[in-house]
Specification:
The complex is a heterodimer of chains A (305) and B (266). Chain A is built from twelve helices and twelve strands. With 305 residues, chain A is an alpha/beta fold. In chain A, helix 7 links the parallel strand 5 and strand 6. In chain A, 56% of the residues are buried. By secondary structure, chain B is α/β, with parallel strands linked by helices. Helix content of chain B is 40%, strand content 11%. Chain B has a five-stranded parallel sheet, sandwiched between helices. In chain B, helix 7 links the parallel strand 2 and strand 3. Chain B is globular and about 50 Å long. The chains are: A alpha/beta (305), B alpha/beta (266). Chains A and B meet through helix 3 and helix 5 of A and helix 6 and helix 7 of B.
């Protein structure tokens, strides 16, 4: 998704000279390098300095530019958090903060590089919108939306690289609308971000056991499509919410609240990262498994619901 | 070379101090002393340096905004009604500046934000090919924020000579004097030079000297004027006394202050 983001941004930036990138010491992958070569003044590297990355974006947006702040999610959001709050959100400026490697993507780098709480704390900010696409195709559409929106700040949570396309048969991406990427009858998996591939895998394994399971991408976490989610909850008797985020302040809490508010009787199981720092390494999938997240866990949760 | 009328500046600043004292009688707290310390520098920026409709101003030390408000009122940008409604539920002005209010470019209040925003503005203006300058007023307390030094580095890296910074060196922060908390940071101008800035130094209450120092800059680099100031300058019992960072004077104190107000000179 990282390259897809770069390519999509580059395409948009060729026709809109207001689009700029401010990075904090992260190597520009793929098309971002091309963008830097063609428009060196519109690519700013603040170095290992994230507060000025955000502060500069604020000043640039005030003067009519449309900057994207871009670095590893923990450093894009956690380190300069108060700058995002005061400079971007309080002043409601059209700046996209791109966090690469949301969740525990950087599985060998340890807890300092894990953005496990990002969606919760980004969503807590007034005026902030939060988008977490699940695959390269959705990343392309979400990035396009970010390059054209004029309203206020966005936190765009991306994975890393090499994620497979899982939305090729889905209806088009629509900002703020839940997106059913695989239909079903007996149960539904709701989630966001690259971990949705795990949802697809769980749905396939359950299908082999005679259970028809749908999968929906809740790519826009704020504003949350409460009506769209309520409609889905009304259609499916069993629900699993899967998120690569701590268990509070995310989609799981919200889905349960929507069910309660709408008087819906579906069974809901929430799967997330553990609410703890896990001192383990290995592949991304291995670390997720340590947190209790794998296709079998999702399948078991739905079967036992 | 300087056409700046220093005696007119002194008369204006006397009027502004009186105006701030008057407004203070309607609210319990007003940040008088930090407004008085940066008053002459802010006056020089607005009346002697900024070019209409082209240049930008950021009050990074948001708690000094009363100095900006009364100057904006004088310039006809800030409605007098809003100054009268300062910090009331009927008004739009609070104790820190809010972007979108008349003449206010950036919301500040949390320290260490304004210079970074100013860097972004100055960078954007250059990128767009605009001949605009960005003026930022910073407190010496903000020199203790790491974010300020991120902005200092970045401004120099990009040669932002359209960025002019004025540091209000009143030596006070919340707990104690900055010279006690951070004795090793002096001399401040030297630090800026080491970071690639052009520097000037002046008594921050000497409007003519402030104007002359800023006007004499060579360009090619961001510019900082390190202005030595007195917190609460203009009212003897407020000078160097921490309580006046925030509190409004009571009736007798107000009467004494108004009686003794005179034109401040270096």
């Amino acid at each position: 998704v990282r390259n897809t983001f770069a390519r999509t941004f580059y395409e948009a930036a060729r026709t809109d000279s207001r689009l700029c990138v401010v990075v904090a010491d992260i190597s520009p992958a793929g098309s971002m390098e091309q963008f830097r070569k063609e428009y060196p003044k519109r690519f700013v590297n603040t170095g290992v300095a994230e507060q000025i990355m955000i502060g500069m974006c604020a000043g640039m947006a005030m003067r009519g530019l449309r900057p994207f702040a871009y670095t590893i999610a923990t450093f894009a959001l956690f380190r300069p958090y108060e700058f995002i709050r005061d400079d971007l959100c309080y002043q409601d400026l059209p700046v996209t903060v791109v966090g690469v490697g949301g969740g525990v993507t950087y599985s060998t780098l340890g807890g300092t590089h894990h953005a496990m709480e990002d969606v919760a704390i980004a969503s807590a900010l007034p005026n902030m919108r939060v988008i977490a696409p699940c695959d390269p195709e959705e990343t392309r559409a979400a990035t396009q939306w970010c390059t054209t929106q004029e309203e206020g700040p966005v936190y765009l949570r991306l994975g890393k690289a090499g994620e497979p396309v899982i939305t090729d048969k889905a209806p088009p991406f629509e900002y703020g609308k839940v997106r059913l990427i695989r239909d079903g009858r007996d149960a539904l998996i709701l989630g966001y971000g690259p971990i949705l591939k795990m949802g697809i895998d769980a749905a396939l394994s359950l299908e082999a056991r005679g259970l028809s399971v749908g999968v929906a991408s809740v790519h826009t976490l704020k504003p949350l499509d409460r009506e769209g989610i309520a409609n889905l909850l009304a259609r499916f008797p069993r629900i699993a919410v899967v998120e690569e985020m701590v268990p509070s302040g995310g989609l799981g809490d919200a889905v349960k609240a929507i069910a309660w508010d709408n008087g819906l009787a579906c069974k809901i199981r929430c799967l997330s990262l553990k609410h703890e720092f896990v001192h383990s390494y290995g592949s991304h999938g291995e670390l997720l498994a340590v947190h209790g997240l794998d296709p079998r866990a999702i399948a078991r949760a739905l079967e036992s619901a | 070379m300087s056409t700046f009328d220093a005696s007119a500046a002194r008369r204006r600043c006397l009027k502004y101090r009186r105006r701030i004292l008057d407004v203070s009688q309607r609210v319990g707290a007003l940040h008088i002393a930090p407004a008085f310390s940066c008053l002459e520098m802010t006056d020089v920026i607005y009346h002697g340096l900024m070019r209409n409709r082209r240049d930008l101003f950021v009050m990074s030390k948001g708690h000094g905004c009363m100095s900006q408000y009364v100057i904006l009122e004088d310039l006809g940008i800030m409605p007098t009604d809003e100054i009268e409604r300062y910090c009331s539920s009927a008004g739009i002005l609070g104790a820190h500046p809010d972007r979108g209010n008349p003449g206010i470019e950036a919301s500040t209040g949390s320290l260490g934000h304004g210079l970074g925003i100013g860097v972004g503005m100055a960078y954007a203006e250059k990128l767009k090919g605009e001949d605009s300058r960005v003026y930022v007023v910073l407190s010496d307390g903000e020199l203790q924020e790491g974010s300020t030094w991120e902005a200092v580095m970045t401004a120099a890296n990009h040669g932002l000579d359209n960025l002019l910074l004025f540091v209000d060196m009143n030596d006070f922060s919340g707990l104690e004097r900055m010279s006690e908390a951070h004795p090793a940071v002096y001399p401040v101008a030297e630090k800026f030079r080491a970071f690639g800035w052009e520097t000037g130094e002046a008594n921050g209450h000497d409007a003519a000297a402030v104007h002359a120092a800023a006007s004499a800059r060579q360009g090619g680099k961001p510019f900082v004027l390190v202005g030595k100031t007195v917190k609460g300058r203009g009212v003897s019992f407020m000078e160097h006394v921490p309580i006046w960072h925030y509190r409004s004077p009571n009736k007798e104190e107000y009467a004494t202050a108004v009686r003794e107000l005179v034109e401040v000179s270096a």
